[in-house]
Structure formats: C-alpha cells, structure tokens
Amino acid sequence: MILSMTGYGNAEVVLSGKRAMVSVKSVNGKAADLSLRIPHQFKDKENDVRSLILSTLKRGKIDVNIFIESINEEPGQRINEGILMEYFNQMKGIASTMNDIDDARILSIVSKFPNVLTPEKKEADENEWAMIESGLEKALGEISAFRLREGQVLEKDLASRVNEILSLQKEVQSFEEERITAVRTKLEKQLEQLSLTEGPNRDRLEQELIYYLERLDITEENVRLEAHVQLFLDTLNDPESQGKKLGFIAPEIGREINTIGSKANHAGIQKLVVNMKDELEKIKEQLYNIL
Q1: Does domain 150-287 have CATH number 1.20.120?
Q2: For FRET with 32, which of 21, 84, 107, 266 sits at 20 to 30 Å CA-CA?
Q3: How much is the pTM?
Q4: pLDDT value at residue 106
Q5: Burial letters 39-72, b for 16+ CB under 10 A, else e
Q6: What are the extents of the domains in the chain?
C-alpha cells in the first residue's frame, strides 16, 4: 500500500451558537514538520493535539489551523478606560486651543483609536474543546482518505514504470549472445591483423580472450537487477506505506543499470539502458511524495 504525503482535509462543527473550523494541509517533507494554530484558551491542549496529528500523518510538512467563532452574536469587547481617558484628555486639550470643546464628539472620535476596545479574554470551555477534537478527527480522516486515494494513483504509476524497466531488461538479455559473439569476432580479427593467431602463444591468447569476455559479462548484473525490481514491487504491496524503503531500493536498481550500460559495448543495449534510466528518474521523482 502506498500513501501520498500530499493531502487536504477540513471540518466544521456547530454547537450551542458556536462554530469550530479545522483545516489540515500537508505536502511532502523528509520528516514531520508541523505548524499548528490553535485558540489561545486551549494552549494547554497543544501537546495532545500535536500527538494526535503526528501519530496520524507521521511525515510531511503539515499545516493545521483551528478556529472558533460565535454564530449569532458579536464578539465581546472591553473598553480600556486608561487609554480612552488619555486620548480624550489630549484631544480635549487640543480642542480647547481652538475654542471648540464638544465632549461627546471628542469621545466619539477617540473611541475609534487603537487599543481603546480590546477583545474579552475567553476562558477554556470543555464543550468547545470537545468540538475541536471532533472537528480535528474529522479533518484528519479526510486528509488520510485523500492521501490514500493519491497513493493508489502513485502505486499504479510506480508499478507500471518498474515493470517497464523489467521488460527492457529482458530485451537486454536477448542481445547477450549477439553481443558476446560480436566482441569475440572483433578481438579475433584484431589478433589476426597482428599475425598472432598461430604459434606457441595461442593458448595464452585464448585465456586472455576468455578473461576479457568474462569482464564484459552482465549476467550477475541482470540477476541483481531482477531481484531489486522484485523487492521494489513487493514493497509496493506492503500493508504499510514504505516510502523511505523504496527510496533505498531505487538507487540499487540504478547501480545495476549503470553497470550494464558501462559493460554493454553494444548500441542496442545502450539504447535500452537509456530508456531504463529515464523510467528510473521518473520513479525517483514520485518517491519524494510517498509516506
């Protein structure tokens, strides 16, 4: 099973004239990077909220916003009398120099000055906290479902690409006999040109030829490549999403493909190797977004 690290979920819960809104968004990241905004009266619950989010989403850059608002009533505000009177006295002093003292008008003006009205401090309410928990769990359920759906799309794409690598590798094997025969023929022709095909050193030359051909042999690389590809496919089907493990397997596949390319000495195989590398690069790009 594959889970994407990208997802979005939101929830809205209404209770007793108040509404709790929760939004959760995540993108890919190497580790868990959580940004949490929560109403100040519930700051003591922050660790519990973080634990719930991280235990559910595990990894990625995660943004969570939690907000509570009243539905049918204006938010409570308190008059800061000290600041109000300070503004009032200053304005009244200025107005007196102009012989234009109107207390009601001055009061109306200064009441709109900064910090005269401040929101009332809200106390923590267990009913509100229950709303937040309910909304958070619903939003986390949504984002988890989103991650699963996108993961299923990624899984199909990865399986298709890694099977294409396996198909190309089978084509490489079909060139093997032709490749070795061509290399052997080329070497023998070069020896003939040097007039060394006859004489006391014939056996030694045969030994050197066999040694050279063995160095060009790619049987082991093909076997290891098949094993790595099979491990990749098995890991895709693991009950848990294994993005990091897949990230470790992909370079091993690349290593065998590169070795086959360096030993190939055959235009047809080199073309297949390029195609395998292209598929592998697309796989690596997708792995960055897998949990």
Answers
A1: yes
A2: 21
A3: 0.73
A4: 80
A5: beebeebeeebbeebeebbbbbbbbbebebeeee
A6: 7-73+126-147, 77-119, 150-287
